[in-house]
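Response to reviewer comment R2.3. The reviewers asked that we include at least one raw input/output pair. We reproduce the pair for Outer membrane protein assembly factor BamA here without editing.
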Amino acid sequence: KETVTKAGDTLSEERLQRDAYAMEDFYRDKGYKDVKIIAKQEEVKGGEAKVIFEIDEGIRGFISKIRFIGNQAATAKELEKVVKLKPKEWWQIFSKSDRFEEMALKDDVSRIKNYYLNQGYIDISVAASVDLPRTAKNEEAQKDTDAPRGEDFDPDDIPAEDLILTYRIEEGRQYRVGTLSVDGNAFFSADDLLNELQTKAKQVEIFDQVELKMMKANGLQEGEIYAINSLQASIETLQDKYGRRGFREARVEYRMTPNVENGRIDVSFNIKEGEKFYVDKIEIQGNTTTRDKVIRREIDLAPGEVFDTVREKASKKRLEGLNYFSKVETYAEETDVPNRQKLIVKVEEKGTGEVSFGAGFSSVELLTGNITVGEKNFDLQRIFQSFPPRGAGQKVRFQASIGFRSQNINLSFTEPWFLDKPIRLEAGGYYNGASYLSEFYNQKNFGAFTGLSRRLGDDYPLNRWSTGVTYRPEYYDIANLQSDAPPYFQASTGDTFKSSLRGSITYDGRDSFMLAHSGQYFEFGAEGAGGPLLGTENIWKIKAEFKTYHTLWKEKDVIFSARVLLGLVDAYSTTEYVPVWDQLFAGGSGSIRGFDPSLGSTVNGGSVGPKQNAQPVGGGTQGVYQAEITAPFPILENRVRWAVFCDGGFVNENVFDFQPKTYNNTQSMMVNGTPTTYNAINGGFQIGAGFGIRMDIGIGPMKFDIGFPVMTGDPNNGGGLGAFKMYFDGGYQF
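Raw output as returned:
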């Protein structure tokens, strides 16, 4: 089953070797750490050959224990977190950490050394061995190893031995940074370079040679514990300083002088400056589909400028971030002109189209089916010239989803460089039909939008700020409004043309869009409809949102996140009441968990905020907070995270009313000129709490939460364990 080669196939040495590797991997999964398999051929008549796989199984065993000898500065528990090979815990069903491999053991030795080198132990020595304890289990396994094999032999039939990994450590003494010095410099003074090391070597991005990934580290500082990553950060800092001024061939070497008596290590940086270069011209290679200008506009260098290597690296990252290319390279080529080099940008195109079909489920919309067709390197000018029309860096997407309670169609177009300026143009149209918003009416709305946005700058911190404005004409079609609907529905609901303009400013300092461990996010938006924009709906709305993310326990990847949302909405001019679809609500997965979602009464009978005859009608002032802690789930650490949360908030009927209201009485309002009475309820400030899981199931992140109302002044919202609500939605975080 593990082999690709079958009887009758054309013989291939490469395929036979792959088959041998596949069978070795199969054996290692079964615990045969020393297995060796060799493929041999024997010629037979008729131009055929017989393939024989010679198998040397060795012993079968799994890691049952790891031990450290000689460690004093670090505890065994701390070192266990460093290595990858270790016994499986009972809950780690799919983990292969107890599967021994020789290369993996060597990697773990390097990890332990790297750990100590970053703690100031420059003389660290680590030796590893695999031990077989003399136990009855191991003796039985060794006897069965030599037993004859039948045709139906299963490697699992051989009892596994217990392996013990032993690391013998000689730490040496710990060193702190002594004197930092530089030599070989001519363009910059020594004081200038040393000042750069003290002030700019903060959170420098370096490449970890052991884990083979990019990471951030602070540079060396006198008196601080010596760390090899800090040394690399200091070297990168000096090279970047020269690189900004065009010394792209500058090299920094170092010399360490440890003093065993006082535990200090002096570090001297020797600089080979080389020549200062300017950009001669920029040449793009490999772009068979993407237009030259799409690539050039991401390059923060121009002919005649100083050949800034920092800007060159930033340009390469931007090109990689476009996700149009499988590979991006930048390098310099010599020219006939002294001190001028040509910048070569070499790319490899990849597929940028998207076609997907899927199905989804949420606690609001139930089951839905959807289709998505998109192109993220679209070219509107080639729409009648080639198929698919690609190459201008534009984005186009069509989405349609059909469900039991909704039908949605969306078409969007994005031009990230409108008029060849760093201004994003977005336009599109949509149709949404939903029956779940209320049991008292069915709603359809369709419309279009056009928006412009841009970042405030290319450098930190302005590159984290953006501003935008969007115009949106929409038509709301309300059908089957029932006579027993709440008075607010009857007074504010009807066929409406809404013409609105929304402006926003956004700050995004998160370290990741998918799963943020640190940083903040802020958005302030103001919207106006009607008035000079025409239309039949006259309202204004303001919303402000703030999110923050913090790592509570780095080793266990425990993340705390919090969100605060404030909203205001009111009508003006000829509009007496804000239409219900523009009212502010609270409750549900993206709001206050433990209560029903934010809109509609059938599925939202327990929504937070004002109610008429037990039906939520929304309000003019909203205040919500969400707080949660997440961490990897022990069984599937890379795929599943657990979460605990506590949310709270309120909605008040009137605008600018920030004092939560609690009442249960009879009130009245005018409906088409007629006073109508109703039972009015508001539960005040309400709190929900619960737990959930976050999953990466291959089609995108999903989350499942169970929430309970723990504080409410609304008798319809219930309380206790029997009043739990379940939510199934997309995303890892809010």
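The chain is about 15% helix and 45% strand. Confidence is low (pLDDT under 50) at residues 599-606. Further pairs are available on request from the corresponding author.
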